[in-house]
Design brief:
single chain, 4-stranded mixed beta sheet, signal
Amino acid sequence: MERGHHRTAKRGARGARPAALGATALALALLTGCAPATTGTPAPAPAPQQQASSSADPHRRPDSGLGADFTGESVIKHNPLYATGRLSPLPCPALELDVHDAESMERFLNAVTDCLDQAWTVQFAKAGLEFEPPQRVYWTEPGTSPCRDYPSAAGGFYCRASKSVYLGVHDIAEKWSHSPDSVVYASLLAHEYGHHVQGEAGILDYYHERRRQETDPVERNAWTRRGELQANCLAGVFLGSVAVTYPIGEEERRVLLQDAAATADRADSTDAERTHGSAENSALWLERGLDYQTPGSCNTWTAEDDLVQ
């Protein structure tokens, strides 16, 4: 049974944006040698490496059309999706949201998911990859998925076994203390949807297998953190692409980064408990997606270790 991916609100961690975030983000930008989308067009991601064809590989994905047959480690480090450039700025105005009304929340979630479906379908087509949008399970009553029962400790999760995004209509409002800022719910949804993007691109299959092979729980968590931080970044890519029409201004951006820090691993977590990254890195990768708006900016698999702690 495949494990679900989730992001859980940690209210005790809420606070100001980490002071070192800006400096670390600058270091990350210098490391990759490109500028944020807000100040110009970023340099293209490295061309995907050539890999020998293997028709016997059951996890082999369709040819990308970019001259790459991506199998093995290249699926996470040199995925054709990374070379597709910025997400198209499709219109996605946020619906008015009453966080105390289940029908209002469900309408909001479905509207944002419609935007996500459209944006990522277009982006995968740029890479010559097939993309099937996820199923939506926005629950109001307890139920069961192939990955876990719900409700659970998580207000939402992604289950690859059913290719579905699961969110609790009441639960997410309660776990986020009925925040009136709709962007926190859009960010949670876009993060879980980011795991579906990883799945459709072949990233989840490879990294899950590598993580399964690790006998040391600390090493397993290292794989998990890179996957979770990439999903943070992919959420930022989408949110940045719809910032004009949503709209997402400076205040919404501040709320998003604070929320990313608040839903990270606690500072006092042990190595065996650290699965989602530090507050600083959680916000950093979301901000990176917001700024660059490209899947290629979310390559956590080649990032230095200190950026995925």
